[in-house]
Design brief:
12 helices, alpha/beta, Aspartate Aminotransferase, domain 2, 2 domains, globular, Aspartate Aminotransferase, domain 1
Length: about 375
């Protein structure tokens, strides 16, 4: 395989991948109904359950062809009964997306909205669960890449458990990057995707489910033909295959990415990401940048950076100059603040972050921007 130019992606995903994962895309053509591929799917599904802290005897992994939003759509349309209801914690773009999906399917929705970057008020969540006994599910985003917020999952999970409510956790950008455990937090449905902290390629999403709860969902009227979770699960159970055509090469790449995850070790990956983030934070402070969130709410996976007030600063010019040097940065999502975002996930090292900081300083100087940076407030 010819050498592929290496790019350092500091966007929220897809993340930088290894040469091994890229090479895994190049495989002999195979019909996905062959037993060889079925065995690969079985191994990938069991591995994903174990990465999430589950047991394949009590939990299963339902793979879906699509982005992380496919998993969000599938779980909400498939598991919330007509006589139930779902509480959605909306404190970022992806909590907002969960609520929009629930409205799209006209699900009984209890939306708790908080300022982006703020933790939810647990007292309000407790009151809502107590006041509405019909609520059957609670949905929360573990890591909000719109801001870099890490929601207080253990406390939220305890409230769901205390009220007998099934817990849906969007771990799309956190699984494999920070500790999250479906057993410890009694998560009924955990959502993730191949192209974030597991360092695979885009194209696969999944829901890791408690088997008992998924079996109960078969009674719910089907709201989607393609993204019905129980029907996908039943197809896996019957013949080990995905119900519809899978992205075959992406599955091979994910299998390789999982092998590399086990080789590195979960704790080592968590430490590598945290060390990348710590170096980034030190470098940003040295340049005078400010960040959006206080450290107690900040994840070590993605940081939202406040743009400086220097008249020579322009995000597009900064992005383009860094892109030419092999680094990709990402615009912010906040409507009331000028920001950009830097992720520290993927197959990147401390040296990569240091090289990025050197490049960032050089571009700022070339643009005539005063260092340390200035802010009016």
């Amino acid at each position: 395989m010819p050498a592929v130019p290496r790019k350092i992606l500091l966007n929220p995903g897809p993340a930088t991948t290894t040469e091994g994962v890229k090479a895994a895309l190049v495989v002999a053509d195979i019909c996905p109904r062959e037993q060889e591929f079925v065995r690969l799917l079985d191994q990938v599904r069991d591995d994903l359950v174990r990465i999430a802290g589950g047991d394949p005897e009590t939990h299963t992994c339902v793979l879906l062809a699509g982005s992380g939003t496919a998993a969000m759509d599938a779980v909400l349309n498939s598991v919330v009964p007509p006589d139930g209801g779902v509480v959605v914690i909306n404190n970022g773009a992806y909590g907002q997306r969960l609520a929009e999906i629930a409205r799209c399917y006209q699900l009984p929705l209890y939306e708790l909205t908080f300022p982006w970057g703020q933790w939810p008020e647990l007292s309000l969540l407790r009151e809502t669960l107590h006041a509405h006994p019909r609520i059957s599910h609670l949905a929360v985003v573990h890591h909000e890449t719109s801001t870099g917020l890490l929601n207080p999952l253990p406390a939220i999970a305890a409230l769901a458990r205390d009220h007998g409510v099934s817990l849906i956790v969007d771990a799309i950008s956190s699984l494999g990057g920070v500790p999250v455990n479906i057993h410890t937090d009694a998560i009924d449905y955990l959502l993730s995707t191949s192209n974030k902290c597991l360092q695979g390629m885009p194209g696969l999403a999944w829901v890791i489910c408690r088997r008992e709860g998924l079996e109960e969902s078969r009674q719910i009227p089907r709201r989607s033909y393609y993204l019905n979770l129980y029907q996908q699960y039943r197809h896996f159970e019957a013949n080990g295959q995905m119900q519809f055509t899978p992205p075959v090469q992406v599955v091979y790449a994910l299998a390789q990415a999982i092998r590399e995850f086990w080789e590195e070790g979960a704790d080592n990956r968590f430490r590598r990401y945290r060390r990348n983030w710590e170096i980034l934070m030190d470098g940003l402070r040295d340049l005078g940048f400010r960040i959006l969130l206080p450290l107690e709410r900040q994840s070590p996976l993605l940081t939202t950076v406040l743009e400086p007030d220097d008249p020579n600063y322009n995000f597009d010019r900064l992005h383009n100059a860094l892109y030419e040097k092999g680094f990709t940065i990402y615009p912010g999502k906040l409507q009331d603040s000028a920001t950009f975002r830097l992720a520290t996930i993927g197959a990147i090292s401390e040296a990569d972050i240091k090289d990025f900081l050197d490049a960032l300083k050089a571009v700022l100087q070339a643009e005539g921007i005063t260092i340390p940076l200035s802010y009016s407030l």
